[in-house]
Amino acid sequence: MAVVFLAASQGPRGFSKLVVVKELKEEFTQDVEFTSMFVDEARLAARLNHPNIVQTYEVEEQEGHFFIVMEYLEGQPLSQTRSRLARLGATLRDHQVRVLCDVLEALHHAHELQDYDGKPLNVVHRDVSPHNVIITYDGVVKLVDFGIAKASDQSSQTRTGVIKGKLAYMSPEQAFGKPVDRRADVFAVGVILWEAITGRRMWKGNAEGAIAHRLSVGDIPKITEYVPEPPPMLKAICERALAPRSADRYPTASAMRVDLEKYLATLVQKPMARDFGALVVQAFSEERVRLAGLIEEQMRTLRETQTGPVELPRLAAFQTLTPHANTPVSKSGPLSMQMSARSMRQPEPQGYPVKWLVIGGIALIVLGAAATTAIMAPWAQGAGGNPPPATSTPDAH
Q1: What pLDDT was estimated at residue 158?
Q2: pLDDT number for residue 165
Q3: Same domain for 59 and 178?
């Protein structure tokens, strides 16, 4: 429901900082449901303050346009990282366990978030997946995209029978539109852990209807079907996280992290964040150089075309980049682009004047699927033509 731009925040005396600007798509700006969702995301994102969660700097609305300004992450989604490294023959299991410890730390922070009066907000991410976990080239883990997160202070409401998120990482209760709590996110982390142990997608080869049916009967794929002798501790942790009944799972993300840390403590060679970052740098060196070159080229162009001081108190210049007609677009995003520009006046900020100059709609490799919200309509076709039942009460959020 949004587009993501790479931008430069420019201030006095040559100050410049790369940021990410997420804008609600034009066609949704008059839709109350989508604007409410976007504002809810912005409000929640601004409250989250944790080293393993992407930071939000600013939230703005100008002439009906909604923007979230976030930190720029130079790195790759876990989804691309693990597939690329697997093709290179790298062993990833224990590195991914280290990553998931940080993801669980981030989730626990979100789950424990309280309102200013101390009332729990009951935040649930609802879209935890390898696409929304970023590994920076320094080895830092960042959880992104709270676009469909549930919190008790939200203004938007999830309609009965509408399912939000990625089915392949959903808990049974989320897949069937039932009320969810933090244990739905624990289940999603369990799926990622299952995939780290086996080296394959958990629901690979299953159509959505088949996945829904298996979730409905608690038929979770067994690790031992693909890895005959997995580490016993890791297998037990994964099975508890993937318990079909939420009551049988870890009660908190922190509790699951503690057990994963105990497993890591048993290893002779413990995975380090900087080592994983080095692997990511090596695997994506070509993409990193190309992206850095594009950013430098765009920044140089902006410097050369800026002929004087900014006259307006605030100017946001959004330069949308689109691929050249004959340029192939890789999965990592278009890197050869042409520019068109539009600008808009914004109210004066409290601090010094800032100029947002958007230097790339670069399909941000760093944000993967963060610019989109998957909203799945009620099941039209379930396994064998039998759709799963919709709940009679809406998801409380």
Answers
A1: 45
A2: 65
A3: no
Strands 141-143 and 163-164: unpaired
Are 67 and 79 members of one domain? no
Q: What is the 3-class SS of 149-185, one letter each residue?
A: CECCCCCCCCCCCCEECCHHHCCHHHHCCCCCCHHHH
* pLDDT at residue 382 in the model: 35
Q: Which of these ranges, 107-116, 144-153, 232-241, 315-324, has the smallest mean pLDDT?
A: 315-324
Q: What is the reported pTM?
A: 0.77
- CA-to-CA distance for 52 and 215, rounded, in angstroms? 30
d(CA 245, CA 220): 12
Instruction: Classify residue 396: in a domain, yes or no.
Output: no
- 361 vs 239, which has greater pLDDT? 239
At residue 331, what is the residue type? K
Question: How many C-beta atoms lie closer than 10 Å to residue 392's C-beta?
Answer: 8
For β-strands 355-360 and 315-323, DSSP reports them as parallel
- Domain hosting 272: range is 75-280+374-385
Assigned token pair, 33? 């449901």
Among the options 94, 102, 127, 259, which is catalytic? 127
The single-letter code of the amino acid at 208 is E
pLDDT of 359 > 70? The answer is no
- Same domain for 128 and 31: no
What Cα–Cα distance (Å) separates residue 260 from each residue in 20, 93, 193, 232, 253?
32, 12, 10, 12, 11
Q: Does 80 share its domain with 70?
A: no
Q: Which two tokens stand for residue 137?
A: 């080239």
Q: What is the CATH number of the domain that holds 328?
A: 3.30.200.20
3-state secondary structure of 166: coil
Q: What is the pLDDT of residues 97-128, one digit of tens each?
A: 999 999 999 999 999 999 888 889 999 999 99
Enter the tokens of residue 171: 């808990």
Quick check: is 40 catalytic? no
Same domain flag for 161 and 245: yes
Is the pLDDT at 201 greater than 60? The verdict is: yes
